[in-house]
Amino acid sequence: MEKLEQLYEGKAKKVYKTDDPNEFIIEYKDDATAFNGEKKGSIGGKGVINNKMTELIFTMLEKQGIPTHFIKLLSESEQLVKAVTIFPLEVIIRNTAAGSICKRLGLEEGLKLEAPIFEFCYKNDDFGDPMINDYHVIAMKLATKEDIEVIRDMTFKINDILKAYFLEKGINLVDFKIEFGKTADGQIVLADEISPDTCRFWDVKTNEKLDKDRFRRNLGNVEEAYVEMLKRVKA
Ligand code: TMP
């Protein structure tokens, strides 16, 4: 499978057309940004690690009945996926308070939430990915009411699967962001990636952060955290 025209370049990945209109190639980059691109850098080996980790997790989720865009790995930093139209939504689940919710609502970092919190953000860098609700999504035609129901059901199911999966690996899944897309024949599938860029992973015993917060907050040992997470996912 050959990369043709580049369709899109994001902060961490590039997407290419292929000679099959139903398949795209995603190339994972080492580039890292935070705070809507204000902080820029690079995390050595990140592209390879996130490509591999997404393969392992999406394959596991497929086995548990979650449809995804993943088809196969093509190289260390590239994967073949189903061509989808991405909903311009960041879908977030929080199990433990961390990050923006602490700033916004004054919650203490590490507070175990009574129930998972589901959030939508409008995926639009010009406006800093603002949080929106179902009414905005429907009114702005970002997705239909029926799409939202499918996305919400899948997201809670994914949270249940991932929480148990990571707990077995000694990781508390604090929160995560996922994205969904629609195939040409109208199926809603999990898309994008699941990696230390898009989740908060805390060691169960020590609460050590093993995710992109090490980069965002200059905590050091950034590469080591990504390597450790891939090791645990492979175990
Ligand atoms: P937040 O606490 O900064 O809102 O982040 C919530 C989760 O979403 C966290 O696991 C990191 C992830 N995330 C992304 O994947 N991309 C983003 O652009 C942001 C802001 C967060």
TrEMBL record:
The keyword Ligase applies. It catalyses: 5-amino-1-(5-phospho-D-ribosyl)imidazole-4-carboxylate + L-aspartate + ATP = (2S)-2-[5-amino-1-(5-phospho-beta-D-ribosyl)imidazole-4-carboxamido]succinate + ADP + phosphate + 2 H(+). Residues 6-232 form the SAICAR synthetase/ADE2 N-terminal domain. Pfam families: SAICAR_synt. Pathway: Purine metabolism; IMP biosynthesis via de novo pathway; 5-amino-1-(5-phospho-D-ribosyl)imidazole-4-carboxamide from 5-amino-1-(5-phospho-D-ribosyl)imidazole-4-carboxylate: step 1/2. InterPro entries: SAICAR_synt/ADE2_N (IPR028923), SAICAR_synt_PurC (IPR033934), SAICAR_synth (IPR001636), SAICAR_synthetase (IPR050089), SAICAR_synthetase_CS (IPR018236). One of its GO terms (biological process) is 'de novo' IMP biosynthetic process. Keywords: ATP-binding, Ligase, Nucleotide-binding, Purine biosynthesis. GO terms for molecular function: ATP binding; phosphoribosylaminoimidazolesuccinocarboxamide synthase activity. Its EC number is 6.3.2.6. It comes from the Bacteria. It is an enzyme of class 6 (ligase). PANTHER family: MULTIFUNCTIONAL PROTEIN ADE2 (PTHR43599), SI:DKEY-6E2.2 (PTHR43599:SF3). Belongs to the SAICAR synthetase family. This is Phosphoribosylaminoimidazole-succinocarboxamide synthase. It comes from Acetobacterium bakii.
